[in-house]
Amino acid sequence: METEMKMDMEMEQNLTRADDTAYDASQIQVLEGLEAVRKRPGMYIGSTGPRGLHHLVYEIVDNSIDEALAGFCTHIEVDILPGDIISVRDNGRGIPVDMNEKLGLPAVTVVLTVLHAGGKFGGSGYKVSGGLHGVGSSVVNALSEWLEVEISRDGKVHYQRFERGNPTCDLHIIGEATENGTLIRFKADPVIFSETTEYDFETLQKRLREQAFLNAGLKITLTDRRDEENIHSEEYCYEGGISSFVTFMNKTRGNVPLHEEVVHISTYQGDSIAEVAFQYNDSYNETIISFANNIHTVDGGTYENAFKNGITRILNDYARRYKMLKDGDSNLKGDDVREGLTAVISVKLKDAQFEGQTKAKLGNTAMGTLVNQLLNEKLVPYLEENPAVARGILEKSINAARVREAAQRAREAARNNKKLSATRMPEKLADCIWNDAERTELYIVEGDSAGGSAIQGRDRNYQAILPLWGKMLNVEKARIDKVFTNEKLLPVVIALGCGIGEDFDISKLRYGKIIIMADADVDGSHIRTLLLTFFFRYMRPLVDEGHIYIAQPPLFKVSKGKQVRYAFSDEERDQYIEELGGTADVQRYKGLGEMDPEQLWETTMDPAFRTMLRVNLSDAISADETFSILMGDKVEPRKEFIEKNAQYVQNLDI
């Protein structure tokens, strides 16, 4: 398999390498001018919060990765400089500096100031690319307080500076160059990114490490230089490519592989390449991640569907052929054969057709055909040549089918259970009067005491209260048949009304906002995590579509005479003490039950004053990994996670 992988890497480089002499000003095609980016930045980068801020870095790095895909870049250096200035350097060919005849400007100036100007709009500059780097570069320039570019090309270093997208000088030579490459430095504009311009090292780390996995042999260096006395640098380079990615995911989740070797297969047709790496493990969850031209397609597409359908068909055929499934047995379903599967699917193609502006789904039907061809030509022979691996996978799949059938029986019993009658809500649910899901809220409250205060303090027109008590099931350690019979989870399922798992139907959701309200201590954190894990695994659309919230009750009541302040942090407490003149009374809330109904309403439930966190899984890979680590039964990965992140925990009440 290692020999085949090396051949595949060489094949990929040959397929994606463009003609070196062809990348010049003639390849930079102009579609339209740069307009409205600063006025409506969300249209181009999604948001002006932390996610959009980090997206600026991704856009510039993606350009360098496209040079790597074309076979001309081997090293990308990303530095976070003091003042949260970003520097991205690569050793590619360098953006062209000759004149663009249409606009009478140097090509690099066009790339950085004209939207939809780049080497990927029908020219021969790139055969395969992740995006349209004329869009990315010009948008980053427009949203930066300033941006500087240095192009090392043809023995010269060319320099130009821009402020808020406008050139402040002409492109000019500032020195001699010994090698080619591009260096871009920029500072995000605080006028646009008013929430924060501070970069998170771990956020950038995850993205850059992922890109290194997807581009075997490419070296990416990330260095944080903001603290000159504590410079932190990491280097990512994986000769194993997506096979290393699979190994990494299983290791970080604490999963034990069922077979030692990661299965890695690939094929090509014309300018298109498809490769798959997968390994089964001892967990109950599936993790399938798909990428098209290095872009994570969250919603998959034809090629991911082809993989899922193909592996189900091939494993069923194998099981029939070798009598692991008898004549009277039903075929294994997709969920059966994907239990414990960790897989990465990567395709590279010319003219990728993404559905939607977020590029969450690939629509090219030809890639589904290519992946299906790959499985038939490579996976079928692999299973024949490795019967121990095949039988181990199928034994787990057949056992999963038995559990699924038991879960089906439990589901049917639950449907017939009088407790689940649509006309009979949970006994402890204090429902609201309105039945419009767009306006109603369900508070899931820890404990009867807090539940009682919430019921008395709420607005009963649109706020429903469901108290929970006792220890809840950790679904990360339980199979689905246990979930359907759990008495602590059933009230939540019944109250929401939209079912779980295969039966989930979001159109039947009874409340638009589902708010988890628990104490601000270790036990409360545990309750929140258990509920979030349940929603993530069995009611995922509630999370994806933004229906889940976490209430933020205050930690302190600061009072002096008739003046009362509620503080949500130690810093806010100290600020209020100072404002009230020093000798104020401070009450530390150790539980929601300590608040009377009026206090709970005005601090945590009144829409005019409350603070809530919407659960937003922008990084599904990271979320899945975190749930597996924190809620799984492997101790060592959880210990490492806690030790690594303990420094970020505040207000921990033990």
Structure description:
With 654 residues, this protein is α+β, with helices and mostly antiparallel strands. The chain has four domains: 2-234, 2-Layer Sandwich (Heat Shock Protein 90); 242-412, Ribosomal Protein S5, domain 2 (2-Layer Sandwich); 420-553 and 591-648, Rossmann fold; 556-588. It is built from 20 helices and 28 strands. Strands 2, 3, 7, 8, 9, 10, 11, 12 and 13 form a nine-stranded mixed β-sheet that branches. Strands 14-15-18-16-17 form a five-stranded mixed β-sheet, with helices on both faces. Strands 22-21-23-24-28 form a five-stranded mixed β-sheet, with helices on both faces. A hairpin with a 7-residue loop joins strand 12 and strand 13. Helix 3 (50-69) packs antiparallel against helix 5 (133-142), helix 3 (50-69) runs parallel beside helix 6 and helix 12 packs across helix 18 (597-605). Mean pLDDT is 85; it is low at 1-16, 120-124 and 645-654.
Q: Count up the helices.
A: 20
β-strand percent reads 15-25%
CATH architecture of the largest domain: 2-Layer Sandwich
What Rg, in angstroms, do the CA atoms define? 28 Å
Number of structural units classed as domains = 4
Query: Would you state the CATH class of the largest domain?
Result: Alpha Beta
Let me know the largest β-sheet.
9 strands, mixed
Query: Ranges with pLDDT <50 over ≥5 residues?
Result: 1-16, 120-124, 645-654
Structural class assignment: alpha+beta
Shape verdict: flat
What's the total number of strands? 28
CATH superfamily of the largest domain: Histidine kinase-like ATPase, C-terminal domain
**Whole-number mean pLDDT:** 85
CATH topology name of the largest domain, in short, is: Heat Shock Protein 90
Measured distance between first and last alpha carbons: 51 Å
What is the percent of helical residues?
25-40%
